[in-house]
Amino acid sequence: MLERHELEAFLTLAEELHFGRTAARLHVSTARISQIIAKLERRIGVPLFNRTSRRVELSPVGRELYEETRPAWSRITAAVERAVDAGRGLTGLLRVAFTGPAAGQLLAGAAQAFRERHPDCEVRLKEAHLPQVLPWLRDGAADLALTCHPMREDGITMGPVLVREARMLAVPTAHPFARRATVSAEDLARVTVLRLPDTLPESLRDDLAPRLTPSGKPITPGPSAATCNETLTLVGAGEGVFTVGAHTRRYFARPDVVYVPFEDAPPVEWGLVWPADGATARVRAFSETALGLVRNT
Question: Where are the transmembrane segments (predicted)?
Fold first, then answer.
């Protein structure tokens, strides 16, 4: 049977693949992590990690152990936290990530309202690039995040939509579309559309960087971009166009990019997401506070 400290050390090292970062996350020495893992491997009888001077990798047995134990450990941790929340009320730390300045501004207001209702619960806000959202939620770096919907992914819960905004197309200033009042979703068949990283959910990639128009015409894929600034830089350089929400025109005004409204596309949606097994009382209360805030404004 694994002891708690052994399981924590194993799971954290399996995610970090670095003894120093694992030690930092668990607030112990690197030597202590090495001792725990070595003792665990002796008891199991096979290596759980393959180590070289430059890298650490899970062995086949280690990967199987990780895949089988991580979901159960997440459920146990969440269950204990929910029990603590129920017994003591809303206390402790809530880590909330956001993508972009508009989301940050909304979260700042939600955090203030939440603190007024639950003064014993600390809220920390942290900006994430879009590809960082799911990894942060999965490894515990964030408890929930405000980001684009739809984020349909196993193990991830999408909360209610908080914001709907007009969908726009970012194009280079010299592009013919830049002189138009509106564009159509079918117009995407005539341009190159920048892609999102493949690590993001297919639901989000299909929404912001579709492969087909509504009528089924193919759309030429362009280079991939991971951040808003990188995306708009590529747009301005003529590498392609990209779908954005209307807030981008205000927060990311650029001399080399024009934002043209879609005449026939649904709005871009934003909402909270969190791990399905991490729906603590704090997470649920923050979601309710954020929803109440936008409904009253």
Answer: none
